[in-house]
Design a protein that fits this description.
The chain is of the alpha+beta class. The chain has 3 domains: 29-163, Resolvase, N-terminal catalytic domain (Rossmann fold, 3-Layer(aba) Sandwich), CATH 3.40.50.1390; 197-310, Hect, E3 ligase catalytic domain fold, CATH 3.90.1750.20; 327-406 and 456-529, no CATH class. It has 14 helices and 19 strands. It has helices spanning 42-60, 85-95, 107-110, 114-126, 145-176, 202-216, 221-230, 244-252, 297-310, 371-387, 389-404, 407-436, 441-488, 498-504, and strands at 29-37, 65-74, 101-104, 130-133, 138-139, 190-192, 198-200, 260-262, 265-269, 274-277, 285-287, 327-329, 336-341, 349-354, 369-370, 505-511, 515-520, 525-529, 536-538. A 5-stranded mixed sheet has the order 2-1-3-4-5, sandwiched between helices. The chain has a 5-stranded mixed sheet with strand order 12-16-17-18-19. A 3-stranded antiparallel sheet has the order 13-14-15. A hairpin with a 6-residue loop joins strand 18 and strand 19. The longest helix has 48 residues, at 441-488.
């Protein structure tokens, strides 16, 4: 069978310029421009205003163009387009058919992110919308446009990466030199001083001191937040409603004691600007006495210890009772919690009971207590102290200098720190030696692990001693407050005082037959048997 001969026929093209209809509609090209500056400095804002004026006049001067708008963003980085309202509004208008041509100074002004640039340009190209980049002289509907955009955008992205790395290095170098800055606009208590360092704003500092004072008086974080809201005091960001997290951040921020911990967070990705909490990924720097303190260090440490003490019960920082996390079951050692009896009747009342009373096989035999019984027991215990007021005053006065003296602990800390630094130096030296000359790797790994374990042990010792020093400082502050309170009162306490309770009482252990053992801040104990209204002082 003969194979048919291959036939190729040429089909003549129809000119693209040939109209489908005889009627040709002429209209002006609708033109917009985009201007952006990346900082809000005076110099940049001047440039920003000049850009807007230039593009407005430039577009209006062309008789073949119809002016649409000059879309703008100021004080915004160009690494992504998510938060650029002006840019996004322009793109939406263009896709809606309101714009034919967009003018912009350069690719880097449009976006420093390659993906954002190409995605946006292609999206516009599908709708026959053109973008002109003045600096690069690129029209996106031109045949060479996309190749040039890809190349130029990549260069712009690398430029952005370089700038970001340089800025990050500069910030970290400043941190290492002990320099830092605050976001004063959202930071209560300080303003930037003439020397560039934080300066106390006394009116705001009063609020900070009040927050610390209320917490030490036994107020929960939630109650403090509610009090500040009720008084109409604005938050650091100027809001009316205070939150638990805002109050807690003030209570735990070391800057109020005059120190500064730098690089608590870091930027994980220069393009997305993702900020993450620093758990050791990058170095941190702690500057002591970096600026004037609003809260003295002893009070600050006392508050940190009190926060830690309340944390075993997860709700204790937020609930509004001074008894939370202080009353202990004598049977199981668990905390007492507040329960509601007859919640839907007129006999509704609160009682305190062991939280684990019915959890195990053996039911705790410790009794339930009303709030009035706890208050009465405390009044009795404190009056017992007032009966031997001078003895307690002498006791507190003897304790204070002992607690103030941390010289032995600091000496041990210095030695432990020296040992740790020496071990770390040995470890680094050992690692460097391994890179310079070939060694038995099995032997090397064995020795490396040994030194590393020694380093970790030394580090734990350093942290342990640091903790002891802080705890002793906190205990000194507790005793100072106890001394002030017992000197303040006369011979008898008649009404329950929640502030006094919080300052004086470390814990209360409930035993059978409604016997309560009050452990005071100085370590002494007072036993109060509620059944017969007698108390016994334990030496």
């Amino acid at each position: 069978m003969t194979t048919p001969a291959r036939i190729v026929r040429k089909i003549e093209s129809v000119s693209a310029l040939t109209p489908l209809s005889s009627e040709i509609t002429q209209h002006k090209r609708r033109v917009a421009a985009y201007a952006r500056v990346s900082t809000d400095s005076d110099e940049q804002l001047s440039s920003y205003a000049a850009q807007v004026d230039f593009y407005t006049q430039y577009i209006r001067s062309n008789p073949e163009w119809e002016f649409v708008n000059v879309y703008t963003d100021e004080g915004i980085s160009g690494t992504n387009t998510k938060k650029r309202d002006g840019f996004n509004r322009m793109i939406n208008d263009a896709l809606a058919g309101k714009i034919d041509l967009i003018l912009t100074k350069s690719i880097s002004r449009f976006a420093r992110n390659t993906v954002d640039t190409l995605t946006t340009v292609r999206k516009l190209k599908e709708k026959k919308i053109e973008v002109y980049f003045e600096k690069e002289n690129i029209y996106t509907l031109d045949a060479k446009g996309e190749v040039m955009i890809t190349i130029m955008s990549s260069l712009a992205q690398e430029e952005s990466r370089s700038i970001s790395e340089n800025i990050t290095w500069g910030k970290r170098k400043s941190m290492a030199d002990g320099k830092f800055s605050l976001a004063y606009k959202y930071f209560l208590g300080y303003e930037k001083g003439e020397d560039g360092l934080p300066k106390i704003v006394e009116e705001e500092a009063k609020i900070i001191r009040k927050i610390y004072s209320l917490f030490l008086e036994g107020y929960t974080v939630r109650k403090i937040a509610d009090c500040l809201t009720e008084k109409g005091i604005p938050t650091p960001k100027g809001k009316k409603q205070w939150s638990v997290s805002t109050v807690l951040s003030i209570l735990t921020n070391e800057k109020y004691r005059g120190d500064a911990l730098l690089q608590k967070t870091y930027t994980a990705d220069f393009l997305s600007k993702t900020v993450k909490k620093n758990y050791g990924e990058v170095p941190q720097y702690y500057i002591e006495n970096s600026h004037p303190a609003i809260i003295d260090p002893e009070t600050f440490e006392f508050v940190q210890n009190e926060i830690k003490r309340r944390r075993p019960n997860r709700h204790k920082l937020h609930r509004n009772s001074p008894f939370m996390a202080k009353i202990i079951c004598g049977d199981c050692g668990g905390f007492y919690g507040r329960k509601v009896w007859h919640s839907n009747s007129k006999h509704r009342k609160f009682i305190w009971r062991c939280n684990k009373k019915y959890e195990g096989n053996d039911v705790c035999t410790t009794p339930n207590l009303t709030e009035s019984e706890i208050e009465t027991a405390f009044i009795m215990a404190f009056n017992e102290m007032l009966g031997e007021k001078e003895k307690y005053i002498r006791r507190f006065e003897r304790l204070l200098p002992l607690l103030a003296d941390t010289s032995d602990l600091e000496k041990r800390l210095a030695e432990a720190q020296k040992q740790h630094d020496s071990l770390m130096a040995n470890l680094r030296s050992y690692m460097e030696e391994n890179t310079r000359q070939i060694q038995d790797q099995e032997e090397y790994n064995c020795r490396f692990n040994q030194i590393n374990v020694e380093c970790e042990t030394a580090e734990k010792q350093v942290k342990k001693l640091q903790k002891k020093i802080l705890e002793q400082s906190g205990r000194k502050e507790q005793i100072k407050r106890c001394l002030a309170q017992i000197q303040k009162y006369g011979n008898i306490l008649t009404d329950f005082d929640s502030n006094l309770w919080n300052i004086m009482v470390e814990s209360v252990t409930v035993l059978q037959e409604k016997v309560l053992t009050f452990r005071l801040r100085d370590g002494s104990e007072i036993i109060v048997p509620l059944s017969d209204n007698k108390s016994v002082l334990q030496k």
